[in-house]
Structures are given as C-alpha cells and as structure tokens.
Protein: Tail specific protease domain-containing protein
Amino acid sequence: MPFSLQPAGSPWAWAGAYAQQPSLANGTLAFVSGGDVRLARSPYSSSFPVTSGLGNELHPSLSPSASLLAYSATYSGERDLYLLPLSATSPPAGAAPPLRLTYGLHVSAVLSWSSPTSLLLTARSSSPARPGTTCYELSLPAAPEAHAEVEPLPLARCVEATPESPASGCRYFVRHTQGSQTYGYVGGTAPFLSLSCAASPLAPSLTRDYPGTSRSPHLYPFAGRAADVVLYLSDQREPGDPKPGYTNVWALLLSADNTEDSRVRITSTLCNELSISDLSVDQTSGDIVVRRGPDLHLISREEVLRVIGDPSTSDPPSLFFNATHAVSVKTDPSSPTAEVVLTLSHLRSGAESVLYPPSPGSTASGGLGSPVPGGAVTNGLQVAWSDTDGRVVVLDVAAGTLRRVETWAREFGELRFDGRYLLATFESRANGFSQIGIADATADPIAFNVATSPVGNSEAPVLLRGPSSSVSTVAFLSDRDVVSEVSSPWGSRAPNPHFKRRSRLFFIDVQPRDSKDYVRELGDEEPPPEDEEPGEEVPIDFGPPPTPPSSYSAFAASAYAAEQVPALDFSSLLSQTTDLTHLSFLTSNESPPGTSTLSLLDLSSYEITPVVEVLTCDVSSDRSQLICLLPPAAPPAADEILVLENTAAGMSLAGAKLASLDFTLPVNPKLEFMQMFGDGWRMLRDYFYDPEMHGVDWPAMFEKYLPYLSRVSVREELDDLFEHMSAELSALHVFVYGGEYRSPFTDARELRGHSIGSLCVDSSWNEEAGGYEINNMFETNPHFPTVDDQFRTNPLSPSFLKRSGQVGAEAGDVIVAIDNVDARSMPDLGFGLKGKTGSSVKVELLRGSSGERDSVVTKVISFAACDDIKYAAWEWRTRQQAQVLAAEAGLEGGIGYVHMRSMSGASAEDQFVRGYFEDVDKIGFVVDVRDNRGGSIDSWLLDVFSKKAWMWWQSRNANITNGGLGHDQRGAFMGSVVVLTNEHTASDGEGFSRGMKTLGLAKLVGTRTWGGGIWLSSDNRLVDGGLGASAPEVGTYNDEWGWGLGIENMGVEPDVVVDNDVKEEFGGRDRQLEKAIEVLRDMVLEKGEIQPNRPPGVKKVVDNIQQYHAQREAGFDSRFGVGTHLSSYNALHDSNMRHFFENSTVQAHLYRSGQIDKAGRVIDLDRNASKLHIIEKEFQNAERAEESRQKEEGEMRRRVQLKRNQALQKARREEKLIRMKEDRKIRQEIVLATREAQGLLVPSPSMGGKKKGTKKKAIAAA
Structure:
C-alpha cells in the first residue's frame, strides 16, 4: 500500500519555516527556507542556517558524506556554483567561506553528486547542438586555486540526470520541462524519463508511453537487486491510467537488460491535497525526503522497500488627485481575499474612508471585481472605471450610488472625466478602429454617445469651453488621413504599404455659432463683462442616435481637421488651459526613446510652443494643474515629478514645483505577502478568460492554500505557493515570475563591475600549454555580420579582427593571458573577464598552428550577446545542412530554409525577411519553428504563404525562364512548404503551425508542440511589479477544433512524427531535418512544375484582335476604319428594347436628360441642336452668376471679419489703457502711503502746489 504522508504540523514544520529543495545525505538534511540554506541533522528536530549571503541561494546538494555542500547563488549578480565545507558541529563553528566554482556558466540547478569529488549540474549549453539547457559534470579542483573541470554530458537536451549506475553503467535523465504552472498537462513538453548507456549510441525513452509528467529521477540503493531501481515524481494516478492527477513518488523497476520495467506508486496524495514537489534520496541509508507544499516528510527505507516489495497492496494602487483629497483604487487590508475598494483620503490629515463597496467581492456579488490598470478616473464628485468584465460604472461619491454606463462596446481603452462628461475610447465592432464615446455623467440613465466615425483611429478627446463654461468644441486626434511610405509592392522584399504613425488634430463644433461668425476661430469669443456671472452650462446636443449604433452619426460626420496644425506623432491631448487660450498635448520623441515633449497650442494663432521633455503627464481632476514625470538625467538618477499650473503663463519651468520619486517606504513583508497572495488569487478570478474557472471551485482554492501563507518569508516561497494554486486551473500560459528578490546589488554600475564578460569561445584547460584551448569559435552566417544593428560575430574571429588589421584566432589556439594576467592564476576563463563587458582587452594567444605567441586586442561582450552568437551559429550550420540534404535528395537548385526563434516584434519580422526572400524562387521551403518562444506575427506569416500567383509577365529580353519579371504577386512562394516543430514550439509558434496545416499551406514534421492555446497579456501584476500568476485572458476557437484550437494543454500533432535522439543530436545529426527534406521531396514530385507553360509563340496584339473578331462576327470586316462602315444604332428606336424603356424610373431619367419629351416621344438631338445650345448657354450664364455671387459673399465675409477684428483690437487697447491708468493710480497711492508711513510731508490738494522750502523741511523732519 502506498505510504501516506505525515500531516502538516508535524515537528518537521520547524517553527513555521517554508521549506524547499531538500537534499538528504548521511543523516543530514539541507533545504532552502527564508532565502538561506539551512541544515538539520538526524533526528531532524531542529535546523540552523549555514548561509547568510545577500544573494539568492538555491539548489543545495550534500556530498555523500555530508561534509561538503554545493549550491547556486547570485553573489556576483549572476547564478554560479559555490562549494561550502561543513563542520561536524551543529551549527558549524568558524565555517570557511564558500568557494566559487564557476564563472559565467549561468547555472540553472545543482542536481546531485556523481562521486565524492564530482557534481552534476544544469547550465546554458555550449555544445554544437541546438542552444538550450544541458547537463554538465564538474570535477572539484584539487586546491582552491586550481581549475575545476566542467564537461557536458553527451546529451543535446538535458534538464535532470542521475549519476551513472554502478550496476548497469547507465544514467537516467529528463530531456525537457516546461515553465507554465498547470496540473494535468499532456502537451508536447511533458517531461519523461530516458535512458543513456555508454554501450548504446541511442538514448531511448522509458516513460513516454504515459502522456503526463515524469521527472526528478533518483537512483535508489536497493541491495541484493542486480537491476536498477529509479525513484521519480509523476502525476500518474495508477499504473496504466493515462489521465494525470496529483504528483506522487513512483518507483521504476528495470530488468537486467533495461528493456522491461514495472512501475509502483510509493506515496498516496489524494484528491484535493497538495502535490509532491521535490524528492531526495539518501544513498547511504535509503531514506527519502519529499516536499509537499511548505512541509518536508521523511519516508524510511523500510517503508519504501515494503511498498516496492509488495506492489499488489497498492491502492498597484492607482491614485487620482483633486485639490484636497485623493480617490484610490486599492486593496482592502481587512479583506481576506484582497478585494478592491474605493477609498477617499484627505491629503493633509491622512484620514481615509471607504467609498464603495460595503461588502467587497466579485462583480457578480456586487463588488468591484478588478478594475483594469489605469481604468479609474474622477472629476472630484464622481469616480468611473472599467473592469475586466467589460463594464463601465460611475460612482457618485456623495450619494454612494453606483450606476452602470449603457454602451454596446466591450473593449475600452482610456477613460477620462472632463467636468460632467465621461470620455472614453473603445474599439469599433465594425473594423477594430478606436472610436470616442461621450457620456453625460449627470444624466439618468448614463449612456455613451458615439462621437466619431470608424474611418480611422480616434483618441485623446478633450472638451474645449468658452467663457460661459459650456462645451463649445470637442478636440481629438485621428490618424484617418493615412499616408503610406511605400508607393507600390514592386521591389525587393515585396514591400507592403506602411503607414507612419502620424495624427492630425480634429474638431467638432458643439454649440451653434452666430450667423455673423463666418470663421472657425476658437479663441475669438467675446469675453463677458467682469461683473457678469457665467450662465448655466448648456448640455451637448448629439442629435438623433445612428441606427444601428455602429453606423455613422451626423454629429460624428461634422468633424473637421485643424488645417493650421501639422500632422505630428501625437501621444495624447491633455487639457485646455483654465484661461481658455491654449491646448496642451504630448508628442513622441524618437530620441531618447520613451520620452515625449509637452507643448502648448495657441487656439487663436495655432502656434505651437514646446515646454519640457517628459516621460508622461496627467491632468488633475479639476484641470487646474498638470503633473508630469521627468526622465532621469543620468542613470541611476531618481525620477522627478513636475507640477505645472494649467494656464498659459503657468506652463513654464520658472514657476513649476518639483518633487522627487527617490523616497523609501516602510514595508512589513508578512503583511505585503498577505496582500499579494489575495491580489494574485483575485486577479486570476477576474482576468481568467473563463468566468467559470474551468470548473474549479476558486474560493475553495483560496481556503486550501491560505494556511501555508503564514510560513512564507521571501518572494521565492510566495512564488511556490502561487505555482501550486494556479496549477489547479489546468491552463497553459500561467507563469510566476518577476517581483522583488534578494540581490547583493542595488546599483546597476556595481552589478556591471561584478558581471562576467565573454569572448564567446568553447574552451577547456590545457595543462601542457598553460592556458585555455579554444575548441569551437561558433561560426555564424558571413553574409550577415550585423543583425538588427548589432554585431553577430565572435570577438576573436578573423572576420571581426581583420577590420583592425589583426589576425583572428582559430580552434586549437590557446589563451595564455588576458590583460597581462597569466591564465594559470585564473580558476576559470571568466575570472579574467570579470567586470570587463564592453571594454577592450589584450588577449595573448599561443598559436596552435605555429606554436608562436601572439596577442590581439578585442572587445569583451556580454553572455547574452554570446548566447545570440551561439544560436546564430546553430542556425547557419542547420541551413547549410539543409542545402546538403536537399542536394542529396535530388532537389535541384536547392531549397529555402528559415529558422524562427520567436514570433515577437520587429526582430522576428526581420529574421523572417532575411531568410525568406533570399530563397523565394526555390521549389521547396522549410520553416523551422522548433524552440519558437511565441509572439504575435502568425497572421502576417500566414498572409505571406497564402499569396498565389495567377498571372506571369515577360518583356523583350526577360521572362520567368531567365530570371525576368516573374509574376504579379510579388514575394509569393509557389513551391512546397514543410514546417518543422518540436516540443518547445510554443504559443504563437503553435498558432502559425496550426494555421499552415489547417489552411493546407504546409505539412508539419517533428514532434507535438507545447500546448498553449489560450493567449495572455501579463497585465495582472502585483504591488512589487511581478506576477502572482499570469492569467490566460483570451480564448481561441474555430469550427473544426472548438475551444483551444486543439492546442491548449495538448499541442499540435504534426503530420509526420519524428524525434531527435539526444545522443545523435549531440553529435550533430538532425533526424527531424532529414525527414523534413524527405517529405519536401515527395511534395515537390507530387506537385510537379510550379511555373506555367509559356505559349509556343508571341503573336501581335492586333493579330489576336482580328482573329477574335473574325470568329465572333463572321461576314463583318472588324478592322477599325477600313472596309464597310457599320451602321449607327440607337436603342431608343429598337422595338426589342421597348420593355426596358417602359420602366417609369428609366423614363424619368430619359426625360431629365432631354432624350424624350413629356409624352414619351424620342427627341431627335440633331434636329434640336439649336435649342440644346440655348439651354447650354443659359446654364453657363447661371454658373457665372453663381460664381459672382459667391465672390461678393466672400468679400462681405472678409470685410465683416476685418471690422470685427478691428473692433476687438480697439476694445483690447481700451481695456489695456484702463488697466494702465488703474495701475498708475495704485502706484501713486502706494507712494503716498509710504511717505505718510515715513513721516514725509504729503502735499494736499488744498495747498495748491509746492511752496519754497517744503522739500528741505520734509527731508530735515525725516
């Protein structure tokens, strides 16, 4: 019977510790808790820390004697391997500092000890096989200053491995795993156990017959049994059951020749319990330790052997400010599930009150749910927001009433209040363009009026007001006036129309204008007298609503462009200034990227005045101030906030207020983790694409995992809790990452000083030469030395160094010194490159070909840049291999090949264009999406491969046989296509593969893909910037496959299934590529010639016309102007057409056009030519009269405008004169008051003038 684990709360809880990653050896237990590695010795009743570094410490592994502890840490900013000697005392007294064993290897995990002096670990691959993670064996150095030998296992893909079995000489390993958190996963990346024996050239799988997860293999010391016993973790329910469940410990019992096996479940984790996450085996005692949740459980050797021996018994808050208060959308600290509430805070006293709701929860239960980021806005009296359920609601702060805005739109962008009006941008259902909606928030009911037409994107609405405070004009931005930068599709790479980001300023006049106001000048309103109070605001009249709602309205059709304002790269319109004279807006800057320029537009003259460069700006709810975030002056300078008065005069840096974001806040980690746990649970509830949560009782999941929260002390432990909880949804695209992790560095410059640089060579220590011998230079495509403006060339290669007149290195050369530091003093090559990324170094080489010593100066690159070079080297080698295989298969002229690393952004588009158009004329093409990380460009790629030519061209000297003009569909591929997939083809890479197969554009070859058929946005972030768990937000479906497109949690099954053996792949063989070429050859033979047969000869066009007419009109001479003249024809005199002309509509048209009279008689145009001439003259006279009238009207308008402007200028001059007189009077009064205060004689009007001696007497008195 399987062993039932001890319940939580056993002595192994260690006073509430959250334990992870256990390692058990010789009666000693190591595990990670609270960010440190801790030890517990038998009987494991207490534990103590053995590390306390500032870095992130993971993956402890005890040596067989438990005298050494290996673990990974980020003490230098990058994860490397460290070794710590352990004392026999508990806790150790005066322990030695850890010894660093790797430099820049980027360790992923420490697996186990393969011997007392060697370790197994996983790290970034440097083999010629496809880049990724693989397993290494590290031999400990004989002395601290000696070199640690690191050799990759001969496996192309490896994420977990056991030492070689002493009994069989074989090791057990796992090829791959996947990072999305889900239970019940059966997709292409489901891990399985494989076998690698020294005597066999292949590495067969052992548990691949089970579609779920099998991982974490450990050799088990089973005395007296000749064959191996392997313990591992699997989510298999029972032997032979293909449906996954919760993860348990299983035993794999192999036969002596490793050809047969039986499987026994060791532990029993029942329904609704926690899965087992980690496993460790004590090779000395045979005891095992497992982790379930935050608890570790010990299973004795006796219990394991009992089950194996008798298997038959087994059964961020967003703030919106007004003058004195802040309305916050924040997590309610009193809510156990971290529900969202609206609070009102007094900015000076700090007093806070909950506005809504009194009983928080989901939208279904009357709560707020989860407002979308940045979705809550206020005007000081009301608060509005949109949520993840597509609602827009308005809360009246004083009354506490909540009302939903009536709208037919579902996807809302920006919301903003402008006085009583709520402005919104939303996506048009008709064509996806963004439109603007305006709702009067004081009306009942509140409903959005569609204010713009769906002829382009409209955004950033601002309401412009006159002195009466009523809205006079709606201003907004629109890109409807598109201008393509590409004039035609003819040219290399078949350029598609490209529309540069540019918008124009548009206006819609709201209030009717005076009949004398013939010009649309927004700043020309007559100011009211100073003693006149503004009248009541006149509501906006939107006119009758369009039918249906998505059609155009008369209000939207009245929009016109501000022709005086040029088209710019607008970011946003902000606000009209409170003095009604200017409009503030943002435009994007090309450099530095991510910044914008705040500018003012004069609404009278349309002059634009730049104000300041910013990151972003927002407007206070009363529109009195602009709050802008300034870009940092230089890293790591703090960001600063700029507060500007929203007036034309106040919009300057001279009177601006400046505040710094460089501040600290006290944080209680326990309380913050409680909030983050509730936030993560709530946002999964409100963001997940299925409101029914795949049938999972989501509140029950909160209660299930909540008890473990009190034991969380670091972000890594909270991540583990999120991983377990989110996995209950059984959905892909659920990732836990980001956030605040412990790091030894807070300054980027300090981190750069400790980072390890790279020369991007595969090297090994050569004791005889006293240096690091270069084994591989990673040759890339010589035709593309730069890619996306970055050099993709090895810094020691001949092609890189020849530009400076130096001789590059070759395989076999030995690096003996770096910057005059002898290699013998370096424990690793990366040690000599510490802190030198981006710098030039002198590398001394011992040339392998001549034995001479030489030196070169080159630039050290980062490991990320080196990874890119290694990947490019694999791509170049695979492309060459594809051409060789095509030639061997008889595909004359070669084939096309392009590898797509991802489907993300411009870099993916660039990669496809570089590989596709070079080979667009080939008869076959291989699109390699193996290891594709996904993205969003599948629709564009499907468009490219869907293009088909239907017409071919030729000129005098060029046609399709000699590389001439070709066909009309520029860039269309006419041959056969094969798509290569594997288990790491993910997300959009799977969408592309499914699309190519469903549309009949290609055949798929390889293995089943990852299985991500629900798409995500990763916008449900927590307070520390990380993800509790990314929520799959967009479901996919079609008629053939239904929900998930047959991808979700299963993957795309290829037409031809073939897998690479990891041993062969390590040696350079690619069976999947070989099969792809074979399938492509068969497709080419079946399809035949892809170019059309040209006609046997070229005939003159006129001959073709003659032949055509000779066949159609026998008896007629169809040569135009030669021979018999064809009689004229008038259908009105044709009796056969009588039924057509009896139609009343046709007769009305004929009468209006003068072809028939009122009685229906045909008018002879030749006979009535003079009458027609008179009518035509009358029309011409009428047109001239109309033209003259329009000129007079225009002149009248000009004169009225001139007089109006003169009157306005006169009024302004008089007003200015009055103000000057008042200012003069005030100054005189100030002077007189000052003299009186000083005791000076002040002449009175009765004195009638100055008297002699008055000035002298006044001075004397003073």
